[in-house]
Structure prediction request, 274 residues.
Amino acid sequence: MTLQEKTLHRYRQLYPNQPLREISARTGIQITRVFRLFNGKIMKVGELEAFESAINEKIAENPSFAKLSSVVEEASTILTNEELAKIAEYVARKVSAKTFGRFYIKPNYESAIIA
Amino acid sequence: MKGLSSLERIILESIGKQVLNFEEIQNQSGLHENVCFNVIQALVIRGFISTDGARYRISEKLSPLMVEEINGKEAKEAEYLELMEALVAQKDNRVFRLQKVAMDSRDEKIFIAMLSNLESFLADAHKKAQGTVPVKERKVIFWGLGEVNQLMNQIVAGN
Prediction:
């Protein structure tokens, strides 16, 4: 995944249902340009910074994230590889459990039974 | 993530050796409809569960890697921690006690014998009620015994 794709993916995770018009208003990038960027057009540095800034604004709403980032940074220099693996595993499990409850596609029993 | 999450494991335990439909699995596991559905889909995609579209069963041909994911040491340890963490954080009807107890060697032997009795009582109780009590209503019980000195050293060493 390129840096641009990662940034847009992260933006979409933080603002999942935001229409193009609102993305344009938040980033200051023209709506047609936003559409093109989400369809793979290469970003300019300023545009990348605008998305990064919007992402950071959203993250700043949750002060624990800043604490987590700083602790992780410290941990990466002090803890052993094994200990870091345990923490990564712990976080991954938390994320996995949350993800299971987030999205929902209603099962279609009738068509399944007919099939 | 290594191994299965507690949610995935509870679905596998709910199905067990049976062939169940979605409602039956949900009734056994007690998971919310969307969580249950998503976990089942994840297990189907990963090949742990097979389905004919309406009913689900545990796949008959699980690879050694998949068996390791279910029964591996790391996966089980992670599940123990998840369950213990949930139990410690439980707000209603919480039963949890952890104590640092001074115990001479005689009392320690008595305590270990009592644990052995407790284990056989639980095994009998489970055998008696497993056919009637759904997975969601089963009790999570754990016990352990460690020496403070050894545990503290282990915490410092990060093992």
